[in-house]
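Researcher: Quick test of sequence recovery. C-alpha cells follow.
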C-alpha cells in the first residue's frame, strides 16, 4: 500500500489527490499515511492539524454492567429489567467462543449440563427466550394432530406468545379458569381434558402448567396429583418455569422435585436471575434432540453462544444459588421484602388483587378509584419506574431498598389518601387495573 501511495503522490499535485481519492484527505487516512511513512503528504483541502495518532483517542464509554447501580435499582415494572453485573461481564470476557450449532462451545455445553443436573433431567438446550423454550417443548411433545393443550387461562403460552402454539403445532388450546382463583387443580384438569375417541372433540395430548403465575405458587402436591393423572392417561406435561426459581426459593420444593413431574421444563435466565438473555429447556435426550431441530428451523441456532451462556451461568450460580434448592441465592430475601411492601399497603387500608407468595405485589387500584397512569406519574415524581398495579420486587430492588422503600411508601400513601377526593386525583374512579403481568 505504501509504494502505491508514494507513486500516486509523486505523479499528482496534492489538490488533485483530494479529488481522485477524497477519502485520503480525511484525518484518519492522513494518520494511516503517516504511519506508512508518508508523513510529508499534504493536500490543498483544509484538514485539522494532527500531532500524532495517539491524540485521537475515543472518549471513555460508560460500563452498563453495573447491577443494582443501574436503572433496574428503581424499576418495579418487571424482573426482566434487572441489569447484568460486573461478574457476568467478566465471565463473558473469558468464555469459549466456538460454534454451538456444531455442539463445540464448551461454555454453552456446561450450562446446559448444569441445568439438566439441577433439575434431574437427561439433557438441556439453551434457547433465546422463554417463549422459544415453551414453543420448542410443545412442538416436540405434540407430534400428530388432532391434538389439544390444556392450560390456565392466564398462561404465558395463551396470552403473550403471539399465538405460537396454534401456529407452530396446529393444536387447539383449552384455557381454563382455576376454580380457586389461584392455580389449576386436578379437578379443573379432569373437567377440561378430552380423553375419549369421540371424533367431534379434539383430544388432549399435553397439559401445560405455569409456576409461578402472577407470582403465585402451584403447590408441589397439586403438581404431583396432576402429573400422576396425566401419566395414567398417556398425556404429556410441560412446565413453563420461567419463574420456577422463585417457587424453589420460597421453600415450595427443589428444582428436581418439580421437574420430575414434567416431561419438559423451561427455565428463564433473564427475569429474576438477571442475565441479559436466554432460557433453558430441559427434558429427556430424545425430546431435547427433537427440540434442537425445531430450534434450528425457526432461526434459534447460535454460533458463538458463549457470550450469552457465560452470563447465564453466573446468574444461576449467584442469583439462584449453587444447589437445587437455591442455596446461597438472592431470591428469598426479595419475597420477604415483597410481603413487607404488601403489609405497608394493607396497613393503609388498601386491598390486594392476589396473595403475595413470592416477589410480586398486586395492589387493588379499582378499590380506591385510582388509574394505573396516576400511580405511574406519582412513581416517576418519586424516582421510581412503575407500569401498572403490579410491583415486582426483584433482587436489585432489594439491594437498593433503602432508596426505594421510603419513596414507594410515599407514593402508596398518596394514592390511598386521594381515594376520598380530598386530593386532586388524576385517575378516573372505577377504571380497571392494568392486567399485563408480562
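Model:
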Amino acid at each position: 500500500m505504501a509504494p502505491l501511495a508514494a507513486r500516486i503522490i509523486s505523479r499528482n499535485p496534492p489538490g488533485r489527490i483530494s479529488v481522485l481519492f477524497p477519502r485520503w484527505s480525511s484525518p484518519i487516512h492522513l494518520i494511516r499515511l503517516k504511519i506508512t511513512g508518508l508523513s510529508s503528504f499534504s493536500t490543498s483541502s483544509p484538514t485539522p492539524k494532527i500531532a500524532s495518532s495517539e491524540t485521537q483517542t475515543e472518549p471513555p464509554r460508560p460500563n452498563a454492567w453495573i447491577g443494582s447501580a443501574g436503572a433496574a435499582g428503581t424499576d418495579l415494572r418487571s424482573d426482566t429489567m434487572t441489569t447484568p453485573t460486573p461478574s457476568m461481564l467478566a465471565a463473558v470476557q473469558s468464555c469459549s467462543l466456538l460454534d454451538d450449532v456444531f455442539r463445540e462451545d464448551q461454555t454453552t455445553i456446561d450450562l446446559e449440563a448444569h441445568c439438566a443436573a439441577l433439575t434431574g433431567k437427561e439433557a438441556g438446550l439453551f434457547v433465546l427466550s422463554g417463549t422459544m423454550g415453551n414453543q420448542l417443548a410443545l412442538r416436540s411433545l405434540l407430534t400428530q394432530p388432532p391434538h389439544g393443550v390444556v392450560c390456565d387461562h392466564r398462561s404465558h403460552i395463551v396470552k403473550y406468545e403471539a399465538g405460537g402454539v396454534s401456529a407452530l403445532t396446529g393444536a387447539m388450546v383449552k384455557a381454563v379458569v382455576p376454580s380457586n382463583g389461584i392455580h389449576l387443580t386436578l379437578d379443573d384438569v379432569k373437567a377440561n381434558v378430552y380423553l375419549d375417541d369421540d371424533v367431534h372433540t379434539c383430544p388432549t395430548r399435553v397439559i401445560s402448567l405455569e409456576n409461578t403465575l402472577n407470582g403465585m405458587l402451584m403447590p408441589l402436591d397439586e403438581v404431583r396429583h396432576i402429573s400422576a393423572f396425566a401419566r395414567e392417561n398417556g398425556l404429556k406435561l410441560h412446565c413453563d418455569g420461567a419463574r420456577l426459581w422463585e417457587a424453589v426459593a420460597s421453600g415450595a420444593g427443589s428444582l428436581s422435585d418439580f421437574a420430575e413431574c414434567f416431561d419438559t421444563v423451561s427455565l428463564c435466565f433473564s427475569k429474576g436471575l438477571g442475565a441479559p438473555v436466554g432460557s433453558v429447556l430441559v427434558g429427556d435426550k430424545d425430546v431435547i434432540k427433537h427440540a434442537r431441530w425445531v430450534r434450528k428451523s425457526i432461526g434459534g441456532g447460535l454460533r458463538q453462544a458463549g457470550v450469552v451462556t457465560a452470563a447465564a451461568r453466573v446468574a444461576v450460580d449467584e442469583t439462584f444459588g449453587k444447589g437445587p434448592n437455591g442455596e446461597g441465592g438472592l431470591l428469598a430475601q426479595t419475597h420477604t421484602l415483597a410481603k413487607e411492601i404488601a403489609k405497608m399497603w394493607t396497613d393503609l387500608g388498601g386491598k390486594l388483587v392476589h396473595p403475595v407468595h413470592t416477589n410480586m405485589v398486586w395492589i387493588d387500584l379499582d378499590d380506591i378509584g385510582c388509574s394505573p397512569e396516576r400511580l405511574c406519574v406519582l412513581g416517576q415524581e418519586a424516582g421510581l419506574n412503575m407500569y401498572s398495579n403490579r410491583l415486582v420486587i426483584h433482587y436489585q430492588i432489594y439491594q437498593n431498598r433503602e432508596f426505594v422503600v421510603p419513596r414507594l411508601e410515599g407514593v402508596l400513601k398518596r394514592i390511598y389518601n386521594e381515594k376520598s377526593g380530598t386530593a386532586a386525583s388524576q385517575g378516573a374512579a372505577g377504571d380497571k387495573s392494568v392486567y399485563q403481568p408480562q
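The CA atoms of residues 103 and 109 lie 7 Å apart.
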